[in-house]
Amino acid sequence: MEILRAENLVKIYQDNGVPVHAVRGINLSIKKGDYIVIAGPSGSGKTTLLNLLGALDRPTNGKVYFQNEDITTKSKSELSKFRLNNLGFIFQAYNLIPVLTALENIEFSMMLKGIPEKEREEKALALMEELGIKELAHKRPNEMSGGQQQRVAVVRAIVNNPAIVLADEPTANLDSKTAQHLLELMQRMNKEKNITFVFSSHDKQVIEQAERLLILKDGMIVNEE
Known about the structure:
Order of helices and strands: EEEHEEHEHHHEHEHEE
Number of strands: 10
Largest sheet: 6 strands, mixed
Number of domains: 1
CATH topology: Rossmann fold
Strand order of the largest sheet: 6-7-8-3-9-10
CATH superfamily: P-loop containing nucleotide triphosphate hydrolases
Radius of gyration: 17 Å
Number of helices: 7
CATH architecture: 3-Layer(aba) Sandwich
Structural class: alpha/beta
């Protein structure tokens, strides 16, 4: 079942008055349960494409459809609500809130959705235990290693059962062993919970585990494997 579709996506930035074509006419269909890696050299448009698919940025031209609904016409507030209810994000820099504990970081999106405190805590702790990081519950980001922070970020991304998780270079700051553990965790979530994952990465470990591999060059998909 198709859940996300990009049609003729174009993104042009202005760099000191000079147009930069970051994404050039991309067409892409993402199905429920896909495990996709978007690979390519730095500057190929990976992060820009991910941001367009995740409604973090608007295309210059083209459309993005979520379950056949055009999301490119939505207002900022509508897009915020859309992201909260349908998407999970994992960033290279973890993006955990420094003053909150791991548990509070994971609970944050549930709080925004109005889920009662007791239910939030129970759900977050259950998922943390399932994924082997319950002992981090009351630690703040500065008390955790990079790998621990990224695992907390993964739990935060999936706790609301999103339709799609978008992961931008999620292993970039991790050693190979920690990265492998993280990838195994996300593969498990993909298989057991049928969560759709879309990565941008040039990490060989990530690329080797792709079920669909899209190669980007100069803002265009030049190959799919």
